[in-house]
Write a structure and sequence with these properties.
Elements: H1 74-77, H2 79-94, H3 103-112, H4 118-132, H5 147-177, H6 185-200, H7 204-220, H8 226-230, H9 244-265, H10 285-290, H11 301-305, H12 317-338, H13 343-366, H14 376-384, H15 388-407, H16 418-446, H17 458-471, E1 474-476, H18 480-500, H19 505-523, E2 537-539, H20 564-589
Antiparallel strand pairs: 1-2
Helix pairs in contact: 2-3, 2-4, 4-5, 4-6, 5-6, 6-7, 6-9, 7-9, 9-12, 12-13, 12-15, 13-15, 14-16, 15-16, 15-17, 16-17, 16-18, 16-20, 17-18, 17-19, 18-19
Length: 591
C-alpha cells in the first residue's frame, strides 16, 4: 500500500520542496492556497505533506549513462535539471490550467521509480520539454550565480527532450501501422503536452496535428465515458504506479484537458462534443493525491448544468473551467453555423437561439460561488489564495463568448438587434480588459516571479485581442483616454504571452499597434491616419480579427447612415451618467 499525503485544501499551489531538493528555478516565494472556500470546523485537519513518504522506496541513484535517450530515465542522467524542469511544468501548466497529475505524488514518483517503462518515460520527457519553455533568465537580476548559464542549459535540455518525444511518437505511429503496438493513455498525454510545446515554438500546425491525434487516441480508448475510465484489468500495472482510483482519475483529467485544450487552441468547430462527455468532473486535489483506493464521487457535467449550481463543490479548480468551456463551444458552433444559413431560416431562428445562449451565460454567471464572482475584492483574493490563473481563464472564456455571440451575426438582416448587440459586446470587452489588466498589475505587486499572463494559455491572448478589437473599434471623445489606457495595458498582457507562446505573434503585433493608433488620434486629431476621425466620435476602419466577412461583423460592419454604432455608445454613456447621478443623489440625501 502506497502511503500518500497531501494538504486537503490544496491543489493549485506552490508546493513544499523535498529536503534535498535545490530551490526551484524561477518559482515564486508566494504561498498559494486552494481555489475553494476555506475548510470549516467539520473538515479533517490538514496533515503535513512532509511528515510522511509517498513511497517506501529509496531515491533512484544516478546512472553511469550521461546521455538523454528514449530508453533512459532523465532523473538518472541529471537529477537536478530534471526536477527543475518538472517543477516548472507542474507550477506553470499542471497547477494552473490542465491539472493532469497530483503534484507532490508525481515529483516523488519521478525521484523514486527505478524502472520507468517506455510509456512513462515518453510522458516524462514531454513534461520536461514543456517545462523548459517557462525558463527565463530574469533570475540573474535576483543575484543567482550562474542563473543565465543554468537557464540556457535547461532550455537546451528541454529542446532535446522534445526531439526525443517527437521521434518516439513517430516510431510508435509506425508500429501502430504495422499492428505491433497499441494506443495508450501515456501516448495521448504525450501528444497533448507536445502540442503545447509546439505552440510555444510557433508551430501551430504541428500542434494542431498532435492535439487531433491525442483526441483520436482518447476517444478510441473510450475515455469520454465513465465506463472507459473505470475499465481496469485485474493485476494491471498502472502508469506512474497509480492505484486504481488514481488511474481512473488521471484518465478523466486527460480527457477534460483535451476538451479544454481544443477550445483554447482551435478556432474552428470542435471534435469533442460536450454531449459525448459522459465522464465525472475532476475530483478534489486531496482525493487525487491521497486516493487510498477511494473512487471519485464527483458529479457529471450534465448533472451540474441541469441543477441550480454552475460550479460543483469540488476542490479542483479544473472543474470550474469546464462548464463555461462547454458554453463557449456552444457559442462558437452557433456563430460558425449561422454564417451558412439561408435568410428565411436565419431570421426566424436567430433571436430565440441567441437569447437562449445569452440566458445560459447569465445563468452561469449568477450561480458562481461568491469567491469566483467578478469583483475587485476577488481579484485580490484569487491572487493571495492561489487561484488567479483559473480565475483569469474562467472569465476570459465567459467574456470571449459574450463578445463573439454579439459581434458576429447577419446585422443587415436584423437591424433591430444592432443596438443591443453593440452594447453587450462593448461592455463585455471593457469589463474583461479592466479585469485582465488589473489582475496583471496586482500580481506584479505581489509576485516577483513570472507574470501571471506568462502562465496563461494562448486562449487568454485570443480573448484579449477580441476585446481590444471591439473596444478600440470606435468611441466617444470623452472615453478616448480610458480606452487608450486599457488597450496599452492589454498590449503588455499579450507581450507576456508572446514570451511563452510564439504562435501568438499575430495577436502580439495587432495589440501593439492599436494603442499607437489611438494615441495618434489624441495627439494629432486633424491629421490622424488609418481611418481615424474625430468629432464627438472617433473610429478605426481596420479590424484586428478578420475571421468573418464584414456583413457578418456587427461591430466593423455596422457603419451606416443611421449611425447605429455611435447611437448605441451615446446611449451607454447616458445610462452611465444617469446611474452616477442617482448614486450621487442618494449619497447627498443620506440614509
Amino acid at each position: 500500500m502506497l502511503s500518500r499525503n497531501h494538504d486537503p485544501d490544496t491543489e493549485s499551489l506552490s508546493r513544499r520542496r523535498f529536503r534535498d531538493d535545490p530551490s526551484p528555478y524561477e518559482m515564486p516565494n508566494k504561498k498559494h492556497r486552494s481555489m475553494s472556500p476555506p475548510l470549516t470546523h467539520g473538515d479533517e485537519p490538514a496533515v503535513r505533506a512532509d511528515s510522511v513518504n509517498f513511497h517506501e522506496s529509496p531515491m533512484v541513484p544516478r546512472s553511469p549513462v550521461r546521455t538523454l535517450r528514449a530508453d533512459t530515465d532523465p532523473y538518472m542522467v541529471d537529477s537536478e535539471k530534471t526536477i527543475r524542469l518538472l517543477e516548472s511544468f507542474l507550477y506553470n501548466v499542471n497547477d494552473t490550467t490542465y491539472l493532469l497529475y497530483p503534484h507532490d505524488y508525481f515529483v516523488y514518483w519521478a525521484k523514486t521509480s527505478s524502472g520507468k517503462c517506455p510509456d512513462e518515460l515518453l510522458v516524462l520527457y514531454a513534461i520536461l520539454a514543456l517545462g523548459s519553455v517557462y525558463i527565463r533568465d530574469a533570475a540573474v537580476s535576483a543575484g543567482q550565480q550562474g542563473a543565465d548559464l543554468m537557464g540556457e542549459a535547461l532550455r537546451s535540455m528541454g529542446q532535446r527532450c522534445a526531439d526525443i518525444v517527437s521521434e518516439a511518437l513517430r516510431n510508435r505511429s509506425e508500429a501502430l501501422r504495422n499492428k505491433s503496438d497499441t494506443l495508450t493513455l501515456p501516448i495521448a498525454q504525450s501528444r497533448l503536452l507536445l502540442a503545447l510545446y509546439c505552440y510555444s515554438q510557433d508551430d501551430a500546425l504541428v500542434a494542431s496535428e498532435h492535439l487531433s491525434l491525442a483526441v483520436n487516441t482518447l476517444t478510441y480508448l473510450h475515455l469520454n465515458t465513465e465506463t472507459g475510465c473505470l475499465a481496469i484489468d485485474a493485476g494491471e500495472q498502472h502508469a506512474f504506479r497509480f492505484d486504481s482510483a488514481q488511474i481512473a482519475e488521471c484518465r478523466r483529467r486527460t480527457m477534460w484537458a483535451a476538451f479544454l485544450m481544443e477550445r483554447h487552441l482551435s478556432t474552428s468547430t470542435y471534435r469533442i462534443d460536450v454531449h459525448d462527455m459522459v465522464v465525472r468532473l475532476p475530483c478534489s486535489g486531496s482525493a487525487y493525491e491521497q486516493s487510498r483506493q477511494q473512487m471519485s464521487d464527483a458529479p457529471f457535467l450534465h448533472s451540474t448544468c441541469s441543477s441550480d449550481r454552475a460550479i460543483v463543490p469540488s476542490a479542483s479548480p479544473m472543474a470550474s473551467l469546464i462548464p463555461i468551456a462547454a458554453l463557449l463551444g456552444d457559442v462558437n458552433n452557433f456563430v460558425s453555423r449561422g454564417l451558412h444559413s439561408h435568410r428565411g431560416h436565419y431570421e426566424k431562428t436567430f433571436d430565440p437561439q441567441c437569447e437562449e445562449l445569452w440566458a445560459l451565460l447569465q445563468n452561469w454567471r449568477s450561480q458562481l460561488p461568491e469567491h469566483l464572482s467578478s469583483s475587485r475584492t476577488n481579484i485580490d483574493r484569487c491572487i493571495h489564495e492561489g487561484y488567479a490563473s483559473h480565475y483569469l481563464h474562467m472569465w476570459a472564456m465567459y467574456y470571449w463568448s459574450v463578445i463573439k455571440l454579439h459581434r458576429y451575426y447577419r446585422h443587415e438582416w436584423l437591424p433591430k438587434r444592432r443596438a443591443v448587440h453593440i452594447t453587450r459586446a462593448y461592455e463585455a470587452a471593457k469589463d474583461f480588459l479592466s479585469m485582465a489588466t488589473t489582475l496583471r498589475s496586482v500580481w506584479g505587486e505581489v509576485s516577483k516571479s513570472n507574470s501571471l499572463t506568462q502562465s496563461a494559455s494562448p486562449f487568454v491572448g485570443r480573448a484579449i485581442v477580441a476585446a481590444v478589437d471591439v473596444l478600440a473599434a470606435a468611441g466617444l471623445e470623452s472615453t478616448m483616454r480610458v480606452i487608450y489606457d486599457l488597450t496599452l495595458a492589454a498590449a503588455h498582457c499579450v507581450t507576456d504571452l508572446f514570451e511563452i507562446w510564439k504562435a501568438t505573434k499575430a495577436q502580439h503585433d495587432a495589440c501593439q499597434h492599436r494603442p499607437l493608433q489611438i494615441l495618434n488620434i489624441m495627439q494629432h486629431p486633424t491629421r490622424a491616419r488609418s481611418g481615424c476621425w474625430v468629432r464627438k466620435e472617433w473610429g478605426l476602419d481596420r479590424r484586428l480579427e478578420e475571421e468573418y466577412p464584414l456583413d457578418y461583423d456587427g461591430i466593423y460592419g455596422a457603419a451606416n447612415p443611421d449611425n447605429d454604432y455611435f447611437d448605441a455608445l451615446h446611449a451607454m454613456s447616458r445610462n452611465h451618467n444617469n446611474n452616477n447621478d442617482n448614486i450621487n443623489h442618494h449619497t447627498a440625501r443620506g440614509p
